[in-house]
């Protein structure tokens, strides 16, 4: 009876448990009050079944890692210890990354998600959502500027704008479809300008000058983070007038 009561109490209390991501802070960001998982922490798929991962890496507090929450990872995701503080054990982490990166909230460290973004991305890489990763409007820009946000690291900056081009490869040869595939199936049909160059080589166009005129506002660093330097909404002259040094515009 006592144990039944305590289970009932525990089940009422469980959602209230203030979880804290301990031990390994990869794939998290600080939201002002707590470390929480980034969208890229859980954007990939497990290699083995989700059900198996849930057994191997059962959540200590019933809640599993998800974008924006601070659910504690299973200890086995990164250590052989069974309680925190726990010493980091590389083998355990490698096994988790190989088999259950999503359940452990480690997707951002898998090969597809682990690369550098452009220096001056046109959008804020940290806040890209899964629906943007699948959006016709965003995919090609993300592949070039924020490949790590959507698992595009192995695509060399070149992805299809729509996600189902591969279902019918004949469209690449279909004369009537050329405008469409050039715009939407550039990866599948080999239409990217340079599909072999790595996205990490994306840089802001700069001339050959060795010094730049001074920035005229102290906001340039913050603006650059938000993509000001590459945002074609502003003309090159406007960007140069404000932030020539930060944006490296001759
Ligand atoms: C991130 O993971 C690496 C190994 O995968 C580990 O050595 C490092 O300590 C972790 N960083 C943080 C901030 O937890
Ligand atoms: C940060 O995340 C925690 C845990 O999910 C949440 O309780 C808190 O409200 C968040 N704070 C802000 C400022 O978003």
From TrEMBL:
Q: Which UniProt keywords apply?
A: Disulfide bond, Signal
Residue span, ShKT domain = 107-153, 158-192, 209-250
Q: Where is the signal peptide?
A: 1-19
Q: Name one Pfam family in it.
A: ShK
Q: Which InterPro entries match?
A: ShKT_dom
The intrachain disulfides are 158-192
Q: Which PROSITE patterns match?
A: SHKT
**PANTHER family in alphabetical order:** SHKT DOMAIN-CONTAINING PROTEIN
Name of the protein: ShKT domain-containing protein
Species the sequence originates in? Caenorhabditis nigoni
